[in-house]
Amino acid sequence: MERLVELRGIVKRFPGVAANDGVDFELRCGEVHALLGENGAGKTTLVNILYGLYKPDEGEIYVRGRKVELKSPKDAISLGIGMVHQNFKLVESHTVLENIILGLKEDGLKIDFERHRGRIIKLAEKYGWRIDPGARIWQLSAGEKQQVELLKILYRGAEILILDEPTSVLTHQETRRLFEALRRMAREGKGIIFITHKLNEVMEVSDRVTVMRKGRVIITKETRETTKAELANYMIGRPVVFSQRKVSAQPGATVLKIVDLKVSGDRGYPAVNGVSLEVERGEILGIAGVSGNGQVELAEAIAGLRKPLAGRILLNGADVTGMDAGRMIEFGVAYIPPEGNKLGIVPEFRVVDNLFLKAYRYPPYSNKLLLNWGKMLEKARELVKEFGVVTPSVFSKARSLSGGNIQRLILARELSGIVGGTPRLIVATYPTKGLDVGAAEFVHDLLLRYKEMGSGIIFISEDLEELLLLSDRIAVMSGGRIRGVLTRGEADAEKIGLLMSEAAPQAG
Amino acid sequence: MPLKIETRLGRIRIERRIGYSKLYSISMTLFSLALAFLVISMILASLGLDTIQAFLVIFGIFVKPSLLLESVKQSIPICLAALGLSIAFKMNFWNIGAEGQIYMGMIASTGIVLLHEYYGLFHAWAVMPLMLLASFLLGGAWCLIAGALKARLGVNEILPTLMLNYVAILVVEFLVHGPWRDPKGYGFPLSTPFPKYAKLNLVLGEPAYTGLLLSTLGAAAVFFLLEYTRPGFEIKVVGQNPSVARYAGIKVRRTILLGSFLSGGLAGIGGLSIVSGIIGRLRPGASPGYGYTAIIVAALAGLNPWLVMAASIFFGGLLTAGGVLQMSMGIPKAAVQMIQAVIFLMILVGEFVKRYRIVFEKPRASAS
Lengths: 508, 368
Fold this sequence. Notes:
Number of strands of chain A: 20
Radius of gyration of chain A: 25 Å
Distance between the termini of chain A: 45 Å
Helix content of chain B: over 70%
Strand content of chain B: under 5%
Strand content of chain A: 25-35%
Oligomer: heterodimer
CATH class of the domain at 3-236 in chain A: Alpha Beta
CATH superfamily of the domain at 3-236 in chain A: P-loop containing nucleotide triphosphate hydrolases
Strand order of the largest sheet of chain B: 1-2-3
Strand order of the largest sheet of chain A: 6-7-8-3-9-10
Shape of chain B: globular
Distance between the termini of chain B: 24 Å
């Protein structure tokens, strides 16, 4: 089979780390080649080099057997390389057609829109996509936006396609359709590099898989000759157990009681519309649902970040409705925010500052006025070790940490009890989103450990698998209401899906 | 994202430097100064003036003790105001009203002096401490107006702080033309000259030394506040991201009120240093824009209190040099301001080049 791309001995150093440390990689015609690895393994760096965004410090790049030097994405595009980034790069207020032909040089001053329109529709149909070239980008779903991104590069005649974590924004059905289109492109002889950290997807769509860890390639294999367990092993560097966990529910006193809670969303109308819930000591209450159905607003109300419009919140029997975040922290509420790298940390602050973002104002870390840096540093070094935060030192800036390590830092701050001991209530919103297998496993273990220690836990997730694995009960949320609560024994994916679709909000 | 500019001759790319050495930083500053003096000599030569003589005057500032003292004296209000701004800027509160806060500090100081002179409400030894307190409070209150508007109503602070400058300047005009005019001043819009105990002469009877003590204490206080205290930590978190601050349980509104108050308060003491250290009375236009220079100083010093002190003395020297050039060589005022502006500009460009790298790339034809 013809080799489309060959990378030899690629080295790329950033201050302090070698993101790529002698990487060899090869892409053939007609294959979907999965690039698998944990966050920070160097996958994105590698494809950015192939796309001309970074210049490698060492190593050679061959495209169709010819040695090339890529100075910018323009060089890459002219060689038929196209990339779909994790965050879409489209002009929201423009139409699909305008976005696709943006930057094309073949037209002169006058653009023949009709000709482009016809060609684009035809191209889309080839991959089973129905797309209206006149639609504005903001009107499209995430899956459709991705189709536009793909059309954009296919329209430029790309033969080598790079997709950086393409499924992270897609629903289950959209993922299916993407995979079908990718298979079709491969059949046409295109080469596709598919970056992911999800093992299921590797098994499902790829022909070959290359596993990276800490900037090096561990192995490249035919997908059908390997297994999930083996890949996880390569990826993490130690065996991973996929078995079901034994969880024993020990009913105890009620930690949290919510009565008929209404909370307004960012757009003004109530995002939480009459929710009643109870969480007991040592219980994990899972909340299932498609994101954007009021879960985050509910969590923020409990954490004191959003004032409820109506209803009551009781913590250990005390009415805490409408109290601010500071008071909730003092009541023992730990809150793991969604998108931790945005809301959970201050990137420009050091690790130690971020660890003490809440505890800095309580003894022994400060008195009424002065901070006790000695105590904080000592404790910070302990926490970094205990929670396995990989960082050169506690003085490093938080922004230099990888996603998984940022989440570990947040967990250390929220759960370690540096503010008033073991948390009474843990509100975890999408705590494993974007994390790789190893880091997600760490989060699961931690939640179970705190459950055993008696914390009540609200666990909000979109991932049914992990919800079923950890939760004692699962509440299904949609349209700002709880549609039903299933106990551990009776919950399964089908029942949850049925409750979710009941009175689901209109998409739009 | 690096900024890219495409030209016919190739590509110009501007990207942030990840890290640079101290040596590079210092040599870059010296280089931009050298460039500034090159431009200045061109200006002077075009005016038919003796360039070498002018440079001797400018560099003489930092050699001749009396002029050096004058430079230090000029630096005090700049330094105190810039220290205040460092607090505000750390909080991401764009206080550009240091000038007005300086004027309010002058009003407060003068008010205390007049209360003593005309009503004898307190002992002479209490005058200076009361002046310090009053100028801090009034300067702080002036900035607090914008702080409160931001904290309560979410009003952006830039316009209120800027506009209040003009209000403060006009209040001073009103006072010296009206109720506070010196009865023995032949009708000039000036306040009574300050008596000895209301002057900055605590150390060796010299305002520059006393002022230096004041700004050192100020720098130490700001450094301590930001690094070792709870409110300082809160100010920095709010400055980085108010949502994260709220999430951490920090009272964001209260922090904004406190931070803006402290910021204006320090500028207010800067106002005190003008009326009792430099001029010795209140008059219109008492500050030739110290509050605006302070913005440049705070930014150049990267909000580091100790570097703020050093940068203030440099800018104080520039102001002094301007006056000397005007008097000893008869260089027109406008030309003096041009000289100062060229130096400002070159230093700013130098700082930009330090932080960003400009890459010229060959035309695309050579790309494979």
